[in-house]
Design goal:
Structural class: mainly alpha
Strand content: under 5%
Strand order of the largest sheet: 1-2
Shape: globular
Number of strands: 2
């Protein structure tokens, strides 16, 4: 059973290598890549089910070296839930790529790079070692930057350079964190570090290491003020890649802050949470106002990600069990909705005479795409927190947790910022589906398929109407997170 922790990582990475070997046969390569991604998602689902039903994590010690001396892969409730969330959206991304008319999706390197991105992101969620987090994060950067550089968008190469070099700063921060913690405690195993830091939080390098690790996760999560690479990078990426980057790849930061506050730095957690509340509230406003003022539908949704992540960070910052549960539900639901919305924006753009999501090019195009309009309206309702979409459930839980924590100033800040979401979503809908088509503009008779966004929106509706399983799962995860000694025992034994 412990091999279930390994399979969601090994399958896409191995399939990536095989996809390179069959690069001369594009259809076979595409079918192979999608089959591998689907198999990997099924394995991650089996991992989550095994962990949830047994109440115990699955730990795989690579090379049969016992922790803390070897490499540990840990499928506890939190990492298993995050792996399922990531691989579900990644499977949707592959499904969209199969029906995508972007020229870059026909390149021999596209599917191998996409599979590498899937394996590295899942590995970052399941690793139990800080240095291996660095390794998976680097693979994530290489694959994401390369996928953006080969984009049909003329700004793809520029955006890839920005992402690569800013990620280089984040990598330095993580390496310095590893060096500081290893010098202080002689280990980089997360469970062993948690045990040692709790026993002795006084070494002088602990606080610098904590600050550097926060910088790493803020860059990876595009958290204000480390967000500046995100709109350019995500706007220029191919639509199937963009849908994944702006929905689940940025959740690596959310996962990291959950680990920091509930496992690694429990003694210093209040300081971290105070910072998260501040940057989260600022991010909710900055992202919302940026989305209102931008000129491009994909860029609008990229700024929207900054705002929505702000809501999640505030929930983590409040730190109560209800707030943490709300943050998990919010993160899962946002991943589905944002990926679907970005796919819809890309699908509409594919009908423009020159493929672009700029509002000047796609105004009125929606009149030819009524189904896309229905899906976009449902997704927008979810982002704005309007029932019956899953976004309503997440925001209701979050605001209830704010009242429960009596965090009235930050609750008021994100409550008002939520109104901005309604503004930019329905402004975009009005321009694309209600405004008249400009004279002389002839939409293409074909475009990207809507199967993937329809699938994700359908899941969003189901999780809004029938939210109990996800809420119960989030509560189980929070109960596990708030007892860090269980994680330590599972990995180290005893």
């Amino acid at each position: 059973m412990n091999a279930l922790v390994l399979l969601p990582i090994v399958i896409p990475l191995t399939a990536s290598a095989v996809a390179v070997l069959i690069r001369a046969h594009h259809r076979l390569q595409a079918a192979w890549a999608f089959g591998a991604m689907l198999s990997s998602f099924i394995c991650s689902g089996a991992l989550l089910w095994a962990v949830w039903s047994s109440g115990a994590p699955l730990v795989y010690q690579v090379g049969n070296w016992a922790a803390p001396f070897g490499i540990s892969l840990v499928g506890d409730p939190l990492s298993a839930l995050m792996a399922v969330m990531c691989q579900l959206v990644l499977t949707g991304g592959f499904l969209y790529a199969l029906g995508c008319r972007d020229q870059c999706a026909q390149y021999p390197a596209f599917y191998p790079l996409f599979l590498m991105l899937a394996g590295s992101l899942t590995g970052a969620m399941l690793t139990g070692d800080l240095f291996n987090l660095f390794v998976f994060a680097e693979l994530l950067v290489f694959s994401g930057a390369a996928l953006t550089a080969i984009s049909d968008d003329k700004f793809g190469t520029e955006a890839a350079y920005k992402y690569f070099y800013i990620s280089f700063i984040a990598s330095i921060a993580l390496l310095l964190t590893c060096g500081s913690l290893y010098a202080s405690y002689g280990t980089l195993n997360i469970a062993d570090l948690a045990r040692r830091i709790a026993a002795d939080p006084s070494p002088p390098l602990v606080l610098p290491a904590m600050a550097l690790l926060m910088v790493f996760f803020m860059v990876k999560g595009a958290v204000v003020p480390f967000h500046f690479w995100q709109p350019d990078f995500h706007t220029a990426a191919p639509t199937p890649v963009h849908a994944v980057l702006s929905s689940v790849v940025v959740k690596l930061g959310i996962y990291g802050f959950l680990r920091m506050t509930t496992l690694l730095f429990t003694e210093q957690a209040e300081v971290i949470r105070s910072v998260l509340v501040v940057v989260g509230a600022i991010g909710a406003w900055f992202g919302g106002l940026g989305a209102v003022g931008t000129y491009d539908a994909k860029r609008m949704l990229a700024y929207s990600t900054l705002g929505q992540l702000g809501f999640i960070l505030v929930g983590i910052g409040w730190g109560t069990p209800l707030a943490l549960s709300a943050a998990l539900v919010y993160a899962f639901n946002h991943s589905l909705l944002k990926a679907a919305m970005l796919m819809l924006a890309g699908s509409v753009a594919s009908y423009a005479p020159v493929k672009t999501a700029a509002f000047t090019a796609i105004t009125g195009l929606g009149k030819k795409l009524p189904l896309a309009g229905v899906l976009f309206m449902l997704g927008g309702m979810g982002l704005a927190g309007i029932p019956p979409l899953n976004g309503f459930v997440a925001k209701f839980m979050l605001f209830s947790s704010g009242l429960d924590a009596r965090a009235y100033p930050s609750l008021a800040a994100i409550g008002l910022a939520g109104i901005v979401t309604v503004v930019y979503v329905f402004r975009a809908f009005q321009r694309i589906w209600w405004a008249p088509l400009p004279e002389g503009v002839k939409p293409k008779p074909y475009g990207d398929r809507l199967l993937a966004p329809a699938f994700l929106i359908a899941l969003s509706v189901i999780l809004g109407v029938w939210a109990e399983p996800l809420i119960a799962l989030s509560q189980t995860v929070v109960a596990w997170m708030t007892s860090p000694e269980q994680y330590v025992r599972a990995v180290l034994g005893g």
